[in-house]
Amino acid sequence: MAVFGFGVYLVMLIYCTPAYALNIDKVKAGYLSGDYKAAIIEGEKILAGASHDPEADELYYFLGLSYLKDGNYLRASDIFEIIKDEFKSSRFKDEAGMGLADVLFLKGDYDKAQEHYSALLRNSGAKLKAPLYYRLSQTALKRGQTQAAKEYLDKLKDDFPSSPEVKLEKDLYALSDIYYTVQVGSFASYANASTLRDKLKAKGYDAYLEETSVNNSAKIHRVRIGKLQSRKEAEGLEERLSSEGYPTKVFP
Q1: CA R_g for the chain
Q2: Is residue 150 pLDDT above 60, yes or no?
Q3: What distance in Å separates the CA atoms of residue 248 and residue 215, rounded to the nearest whole number?
């Protein structure tokens, strides 16, 4: 999924999956080329005459992926559920479970997505661990758990250094630069900003200035406090500062 960065594992799976009685090459070709609607039309056409074929799980799986990429989360979820419920010995069963969790993530239900990914990590084989570490890192980040996100990425890099997720998603490690901070003021005047910073430091706060430009010209000096690992910590600090009368906002 382009917005989610999970295409690598799926492409590998396509190339590693042997051909069976059902001819779904056109479905796979549509999926690989990004023509998801063509893959869906072809897949549904084949499915109409082969829904009870014992080897139809592969067709269902790539059809589910195509619906997921096309943004039809309801249909994708239904198809992944069919694989889990009607093809209990399918070699795509765990992948279908991951697809269901992906639907939850893409719909913004990060708590349930995290539960599903964690359960799969405990119960599935080694082949899914690298993509699951990646997914769990992204889910943790969405939930404001920066430290947990870093830990999953460290596991990914340490346990699967040659995995596509590591090789093609090196920008993930920019997470090491992510932190939460509380802004208590924004000034055009450096003198005013530094005065507030110094007052806060005198009170024991870890205050500092960040400078930015507006419209590539005027400079703004932001007064911020703390570089914290979790949003929860930042929100606690924000509450304390707000009770002292400061206008506050948590970043990022």
Answers
A1: 24
A2: yes
A3: 24
Question: Rounded CA gap, 108 and 122, in Å?
Answer: 23
Predicted confidence band at 124 (pLDDT cuts at 50, 70, 90)?
Answer: confident
What are 135's two structure tokens?
A: 């997914």
- Among the residue ranges 145-159, 162-176, 237-251, the one predicted with the least confidence is 162-176
Q: In what order do the strands lie in the sheet with 249-251?
A: 207-214, 218-228, 180-187, 249-251
Mean of pLDDT over the chain: 84
**What residues form DSSP beta bridges with 251?**
181
Distance of CA 32 to the CA centre of its chain: 21
The domain ranges of the chain are: 7-176, 179-251
Three-class SS of 209-251: EEEEEECCCEEEEEEEEEEECEHHHHHHHHHHHHHCCCCCEEE
Measured between alpha carbons, how far is 185 from 207 in angstroms, rounded to an integer?
A: 11
* CATH top-level class of 179-251: alpha beta
Res. 113: pLDDT tops 90: yes
CB atoms within 10 A of CB 16: 8
| Residue-by-residue DSSP string for 179-209 | -EEEEEEEES-HHHHHHHHHHHHHTT--EEE
- Give the model's confidence band at 11: pLDDT under 50 very low, under 70 low, under 90 confident, else very high: very low
Query: pLDDT by residue (tens digit) across 32-61?
Result: 899 999 999 999 999 887 767 777 899 999
- Please report which helix (H) or strand (E) contains residue 59, including its range: helix 56-69
99: number of Cβ within 10 Å? 25
Res 75 pLDDT > 90: yes
**Which fold would CATH assign to domain 7-176?**
1.25.40
